[in-house]
What we know:
The complex is a heterodimer. Chain A is of the alpha/beta class. Chain A contains 15 helices and 14 strands. Chain A has helices at about 1-15, 35-55, 75-85, 100-110, 140-155, 175, 180-190, 205-215, 230-240, 255-260, 280-290, 305-330, 335-345, 350-355, 400-420, and strands at about 25-30, 65-70, 115, 135, 165-170, 195-200, 220-225, 245-250, 270-275, 350, 365, 380-385, 390-395, 400. Chain A is globular. The termini of chain A are far apart. Chain B is mainly alpha-helical. Chain B has a single domain (about 5-315), classed as ABC transporter involved in vitamin B12 uptake, BtuC (Orthogonal Bundle). Helices cover about 70% and strands about 0% of the residues of chain B. The termini of chain B are far apart. The interface of A and B includes residues 33, 204 and 257 of A.
Amino acid sequence: MKYKLATAALAAVVAAGPAMADLAFSVLSYRTGPYASNGIPLADGQVDYYTLINERDGGINGQKIKVVECETGYNTEKGVECYESTKGEGVLVYNPYSTGMAYQLIPKVTADGIPLHTLGYGRTSAKNGKVFRNVFNYPANYWDGASHAISHILDVNGGDISGKKVALVYHNSAYGKEPIRTLEELAKKHGYELSLLPVDHPGQEQKSQWLQIRREKPDYVLMWGWGVMNQVAIQEAANIRFPMENFIGIWWSGSENDVKPAGDAANGYKALALHNLGSDYPLYDDLQKYVVDAGKASGAGDGVGSVLYNRGLYTAMLSVEAAKTAMEIHGTSEITPAMMRDGMEALVMNEEKMTALGLPNFGPEFEVSCENHGGNGYGAVSQWDAAAGEFKLVTEYVQSDQEVVQPLIDEDSAAFAAENGIESGC
Amino acid sequence: MPEQLVFATEVFLNGLMAGVLYALVALGFVLIFKASGIFNYAQGVMALFAALTLVGIMEGQVPFAHLINAIFGTEIHHFGWHVPGLVAIILTMVIMVALAWIVNTLIFRHLVNQEPIILFMATIGLAYFLEGFGDIMWGSDIKKLDVGLPQGINLWIDETTFNIFDYGFFIDNLDIVATVVAALLVVALVIFAQYTKQGRAMRAVADDHQAALSVGISLNFIWVMVWSVAGFVALVAGIMWGTKSGVQFSLSLIALKALPVLMLGGFTSIPGAIVGGLVIGVGEKLFEFAIGPLVGGATENWFAYVLALIFLVFRPQGLFGEKIIERV
């Protein structure tokens, strides 16, 4: 009798298994370790958005979202382990938030047929969907970012920067080196002089680089940094009295964490932005009601509206919209990773859609296609207001110089295809 | 003076200052190794923990606030007061002494006379524990540390050197303070180790645990004392580095900067830590200045470790370290 009851109970559990049909979204988080202060808001933003969709809408078209979170500590090996241990749960898309992990996962996701979204990081030439079929890096990439920075410098100089000196302070890693080629090509086009200043990991000691900047007096300094490198660079810039409005960081060097340690001295520092800032959007009212006030927030709720929280939320929003697109394409709400890939490849983000979501003007408009997995390359510039304690967008979203960026993407992706025996095509 | 020589002089001076900051971290390692033969892997995390505690006390932050709020559904984060820097430093030191006592009572008193590798492994565990504990206790957000230390260019040096060389040198006020503090610290530690009863007892313990016990030296007292002093050195290092970059979890990585300093100066010499720090600081900065541009830059870490490796080959005990002779 006991055996029969146990069997019946087991059968009931198996039969009741709607959890099996849940839509699994991965959050490869780093809530611990040296980069935890950045990893926590990134993860919270993603998890809170998924929670909101479940609590407010009952999931995506009736399918609940299951968040599969795995702690990587921002360690590439652990990130790969997380991927291997969670992919069996039917994860629809991975967002590792680490360029190192992205590079390691590209061949794996390609072999496994699972999409990888690297929003504003990872391998830039993955924009070419004819070669990188499972990798997406919309709405913009590092090379777009390099172009956005130079476009901004052109704007503030009336369109002529010939003879100007631009220095790049960068993390001495694959990530930090990404913009160099683009900046060199743009230097040929606009006639500025580029100097390169690598900083060793982790970047706590940058005296040599900033002494060199003080000696050579560049007109502008660009920064591709991460973690403690950003805070030290901004402090050193303040120490040598480099004008903050001429110091521009990539979007990974533009969070509150990066500027607060320098206090008022960081006022005026600029950073590129992939999406809008703050929490003054209708969606955040729902977030407060259904997630934070309901005690279901991933964190303490004190990071809502910060730059990196918004980035995490934006990533999750784009994943959910891609899932909806996949459901429309395939006529089912029970989508697979392969269907999700199709949804990502057909994703259209326009102002009408963002307004309907309660996020008007939150990000640039873009369309994804088989040829273009990276969006239209739009980005903006934000500036730190130390008195208000917030970054504010100071430009509209502008498109990167496609005349320079696109040939570089074609060249690099073609080299990757040749190296890996990939037949390019849609 | 030729322009490049003027620049090199500025780089040299900044190298000295950077070296002092490296030496501050290395000092903590030396103290514990000298007294107990333990290579304390947790020294960098101790600097982080001390700095986190200092900022937490100064800001009136409620320890374990997230944990308390999660369990009891409360919304408490701050006591609502601000503690002056000096008082906060004293309170932090009390906590570091308590930590030293706990570490000794729970871990090292049970490992007396064990192999050095066992003790080393215990400090690895301690490092992981302390990092997680600090996170739970104070949160992992980046905190601004301001105990009133001056920061930014020293105008007097800038103007004076400008009048002499027609180029003003950049020397950070914070680096000058760090140099003065490190000098005072080394003098105090050398006097303590050489001329006080406790200092001599510490050296006796370092030579042989069992022999020291047999002549009536309290191993527990000495180890708690040494870990407390190392905690104080960690606090000083945490203040200096935390003022530069904000207090954050990557502060524990400053230990990476101390390793080549220790290999160069020797694991058992307090002056060696300072000299090693200065040699590494000046060497890496001048190498980056002269050779860096020819090889693409970012040579500093490489230079420091290569120099340390060369020392390992030709003088494994470092410049001032004691030559270890194992009798078989």
